[in-house]
Structures are given as C-alpha cells and as structure tokens.
Amino acid sequence: MRIDIVTIFPQFFDILDLSLLGKARAQGIIDLHVHDLRDAAHDRHRTVDDTPYGGGAGMVMKPEPWGETLDGILTDSPAADGPLIVFPSPAGDVFQQARAHEFAAEEHIVFGCGRYEGIDQRVFDWAASRARVALVSIGDYVLNGGEVAVMAMIEAFGRLIPGVVGNPASLVEESHSDGLLEYPSYTKPATWRGLDVPDVLLSGHHGNVEKWRHEQQLERTRQVRPDLYEAYTSGADAEGSAER
C-alpha cells in the first residue's frame, strides 16, 4: 500500500519508522511519502495560511499550496482508479474499526493534515472532482491539527494490512473485531501481589477458557460500552430469529 501525507510538520511522522509499521516500511509492505505543504508556498515566508473571507478569528489554509501538492501526488498515484483522499475533520464520519478495514484494503491513501481554522473549502470541492474524498473524525473533540488523527488512523488500519502483524490470529480476538471489547489478559506468575490468575485459565480446558473469555467480553462491554453491547445483543437476537 502507498500512503501519502501532506502536512506542515513532516517530522511528526518520523515515528512511523518505529515498531511494526517501521518494519513494514523496511519490507516494502507500506510505501510512505510525507510532503511538506510549505514546499508549495513560493513566497519568502513560505506562507500557507491567510485571513478568512467574511472576518472571524484565526487563519485559514490557502488553496493553492494544497492544489499544487495534490497535483503531484495524483499524477504519481499507483492506483488505477486514483487514491482515496482523507481529511481529518470534526465534520466527518466517525472513524471506527469497520472503516479501518476499508482503509486497509485501499491501494493508495492520501491524508491531508489541516491546521489553524481549517482548509479552504474549495480544496475539498476540487479534490472531490479528481478523486474519492472522505472527511473523517476520530472523536468529538478538537485537536490543534490533523497530524494526531492521521497517526491514529494509520496505526489502526496499518496493522490490518497483510504481513504487517506477524501473527494474523492476534487480530481476530481484539476489541471491536466482533463488536465487543476484548477480554482481560494474564501472564506469569500465576499469583502477583496477592492477586491470582482466574482458575479457568490454568485449567487447560480450551472449551471452558473460550466460554469464560466470551462471558468476560460481554460483561466488560455491557459495563463500559453499553451502546456496543446493545448493538451486539440486538444483532444476535435478530440473527437467532432469522434462523428460527
């Protein structure tokens, strides 16, 4: 997969050289290109923002640096139908595990990291005439810029790309993989500071372990994320009715 990131802080993404994603880059599984938006600003001060039309506080990112940068990326896209261009935005759809799986299946994704009061609306409109565009939110709060949101999304979908995680089975039992939160995990020693590992995990009975883990998933989800629990149980009830 090819990933392009447009930002005014390219050094922020040096962290992608670490851990599993760094190994994936070294192995050629992920082809990452980080573009400094200021390289497309040709005035003395490399200006990428200006005051908003209509007045108001803050500054707005100018359209031309974005247009020039995206022109080069679109021309160089390896995807036959062009890339998916993703802009983090509070006005976008909320990023969830299902969207992470969708992103992992893309051949080429371009991320645009906004700053200040946002990007000139014409950039989104123009980009949508050239490629698929998605506005995506990672939650109902405001960040200083899109970099943290992009990093979170890359962490989420990057590990789903085949070959990135050494043991693919570990992806199956994670939180949100089946609509539930993950069960609690334990390792050696069996007793630590007066706290014991549940007996069932020491029993060697795989059927009982699997049943216990599912029960723990249900109870944890019910307590922590009742919205997910309701969706899961409603889906299970509907499936059971259909089978009958």
From TrEMBL:
<keyword id="KW-0819">tRNA processing</keyword>
<keyword id="KW-0963">Cytoplasm</keyword>
<comment type="function">
    <text>Specifically methylates guanosine-37 in various tRNAs.</text>
</comment>
<keyword id="KW-0489">Methyltransferase</keyword>
<dbReference type="Pfam" id="PF01746">
    <property type="entry name" value="tRNA_m1G_MT"/>
</dbReference>
<dbReference type="InterPro" id="IPR002649">
    <property type="entry name" value="tRNA_m1G_MeTrfase_TrmD"/>
</dbReference>
<feature type="binding site">
    <location>
        <begin position="138"/>
        <end position="143"/>
    </location>
    <ligand>
        <name>S-adenosyl-L-methionine</name>
    </ligand>
</feature>
<dbReference type="InterPro" id="IPR016009">
    <property type="entry name" value="tRNA_MeTrfase_TRMD/TRM10"/>
</dbReference>
<dbReference type="GO" id="GO:0032259">
    <property type="term" value="P:methylation"/>
</dbReference>
<keyword id="KW-0949">S-adenosyl-L-methionine</keyword>
<dbReference type="InterPro" id="IPR029026">
    <property type="entry name" value="tRNA_m1G_MTases_N"/>
</dbReference>
<dbReference type="InterPro" id="IPR023148">
    <property type="entry name" value="tRNA_m1G_MeTrfase_C_sf"/>
</dbReference>
<keyword id="KW-0808">Transferase</keyword>
<comment type="subunit">
    <text>Homodimer.</text>
</comment>
<feature type="domain" description="tRNA methyltransferase TRMD/TRM10-type">
    <location>
        <begin position="1"/>
        <end position="230"/>
    </location>
</feature>
<dbReference type="InterPro" id="IPR029028">
    <property type="entry name" value="Alpha/beta_knot_MTases"/>
</dbReference>
<feature type="region of interest" description="Disordered">
    <location>
        <begin position="223"/>
        <end position="244"/>
    </location>
</feature>
<comment type="similarity">
    <text>Belongs to the RNA methyltransferase TrmD family.</text>
</comment>
<dbReference type="GO" id="GO:0052906">
    <property type="term" value="F:tRNA (guanine(37)-N1)-methyltransferase activity"/>
</dbReference>
<feature type="binding site">
    <location>
        <position position="114"/>
    </location>
    <ligand>
        <name>S-adenosyl-L-methionine</name>
    </ligand>
</feature>
<protein>
    <recommendedName>
        <fullName>tRNA (guanine-N(1)-)-methyltransferase</fullName>
        <ecNumber>2.1.1.228</ecNumber>
    </recommendedName>
</protein>
